[in-house]
Amino acid sequence: MDREALRAIRIYHGMTQLQFSAALNVSKSCIASAESGYRNVSDNLRVRVAQRFGMSEEVVKAVKDARTSANIG
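The chain above was modelled as a monomer; its predicted structure follows.
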């Protein structure tokens, strides 16, 4: 999971960075730093996202769509 995937999952669930961080029990700065690329998405954060939000087909599709639109723009 990279920064684009993390952001896509958050947006797919309609959450702000603050809401997303609270759901994952991490700081908002952790999410903001990971999404901006300032810090890598840690294994711990990957596990938390998978445990909390899963990786359903809809989530995987949202990540792919986000990556496609990022490449277009």
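The chain has one domain: 3-72.
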